Give the backbone structure.
Amino acid sequence: MSRTVKKPEERRADIVRAARRLFQAGDYEQTTMQDVMNSLGIAKGTIYYYFSSKEELLEAVIEDMVEESTQHMQSLVEASHGNALEKLRTLITAGNIADENDEILEQLHRPGNAGMHTRLLAAALQKQAPLYARLVQQGCEEGLFHTDTPLETSEFILAGVQFLTDQGIHAWTPETLMRRSQALPTLIENLLKAQPGSFQFLSPDTPEERETK
């Protein structure tokens, strides 16, 4: 029986997907390169041809997670209808890499992995900011927003939200997170020069409101 020879990009993608499954199913620290090799039935020389270490493989998994999330967000925007604000609401609701990646993100939240966590946030910002910027530009054309810098405004909003609400970056207190979350809609409206109340769908429920639901 002849052995299947895969193209380099296909083999690399197989390794990344296998590692991602293993990292999601268990503990990243306990998962070894040998585990990845065993799951694919490949030799040591094959996996180390593409990745020199488990940390480098984790970085590739992170890039894969971000790419998958971005493609999902893109498809939702393309399938959505309405004006830019309605599309942004759909995009913001969907833009959560944590879905189905809890185990990996938990590893990144550990102090020793702070650098890798920062890379995840940077990769997400680089991939997703242009998608938000296109909707901001559409909103400007529709008269909903008013900014000459759609991309930079999107980058600052996303970077601020990522840094100031992610407890993997810092152990923000619940009070601090709530204060920032409550201010976020107005801050975005001011940056985009949008009508007051446009982004109130981002407002967190107060304890009283949660009790009435």
